[in-house]
Amino acid sequence: MKASQNTTLKWRHIFAQSNIQTTKLLLPSKTAQRWMNTLALETFNHIKNTMHLPYKKAIIYLDGVSSQVKTEEVMQSICQALRALNIPYSFYNAPKMGFVKLKQDMNEPDTLYILNDSASYHLCDQPNVFITRTPFWVQSNPKPNTIGIFTQERLENGPAELIACIAKNTPVRQPFDNTATHTYIITNDYPTDDLGVMARHGVAAISWDLLTAWDIHVKVLFHQSKDKELPMVNRILAEGLEMLTHPDDIIIFINRDICLTKESTTIIRNYMDTNHIDAVYSRRRDVQGLNIFDQKDLEKYPKGGGADLFAFRKNAACLEKILPVDLYIGRVLWDSLWMHEVVNELPCSVSYHPIHGTTWQAIEDDTTKLNIQNVLCAAPELRMKYGNKGELYAPIPL
Length: 398
Prior knowledge:
Elements: H1 3-17, H2 30-50, E1 57-61, H3 72-84, E2 89-91, H4 99-105, E3 111-116, H5 119-123, E4 128-132, E5 146-151, H6 152-155, H7 160-168, E6 183-189, H8 195-214, E7 218-224, H9 233-241, E8 250-254, E9 259-260, H10 264-275, E10 279-287, E11 303-312, H11 319-322, H12 334-342, E12 351-354, H13 366-378, H14 383-386
Parallel strand pairs: 1-2, 1-3, 3-4, 4-5, 6-7, 6-8, 10-12
Antiparallel strand pairs: 8-11, 9-12, 10-11
């Protein structure tokens, strides 16, 4: 047997032992990367062939005027997802016999429906994927038979999320009342005489204004730092959580120079509801210039290394591990601990900021020391990722 075959069998053994869990590995070469790509495809085909989805066919009906799906990328993603899952599909033609016939056609057995916010969706009592308008406050409530909620922007980036949603085949989280809920955005506001910082803060504020005009249930909160005191991220978050009074309320923590797309809050909510999660983080895109971007414009820019956006519901279990740990904003590692505890990353970036220098990473004062100590005390497993950096300072109790 050739050496490459031996190595391939070794990788297969590793995959088998891992129960097909997603694992990030540092691969030594392009050859190894090709092996892993082959194994990933084999794994997906194995899952697909052993899945027993209850659908004999799918019907796609994206009708209506105000919520009409107009982009070719959305249709391509839907068709690619259904083909990947071996679900035959057809496009529905509107009947001329009124709502009785439409209701009958929207409730065929063993059928998955791909629908947008129109009469067909409201008449459908079979499992469906809901393709919705972006502003959250104009969306219809998900139904008990809805297994996924997607804005058009999420599907424009490819079929992967839709494949996972259909394969999971689980009803989405049911909202208590999406007309009474709010999304709160909290950030640290501080005085500065740096013109570059002022410019970044200004363009971020403009993006938030556009967002609040698009999603009328969004409110922006500012934590006001005292003089030049450096605040702690966990205490800023705790301050924001006090505003959450409704079961559907969400608090979004961002850095002061982070811009948000007008679609951001809806994408965050739809992803959390579809996947039944109460906390998520997102990596920003680093852009050139002081410009405002829509969701579809961000994909051509690189992702930043850390996370500058974290969204929580008040009952998120990870808050028990995040809130007690004092960590300074604007210093290293605080986002590493939060990402570690939140776990779930939003598949698409909904935030961005102009590229700037990283002098803050070189700061070695007591605030940096505390962050390193507290992160490695709260999550010792992160020591493997950051080497012996934490051993520069003696651990302190939390």
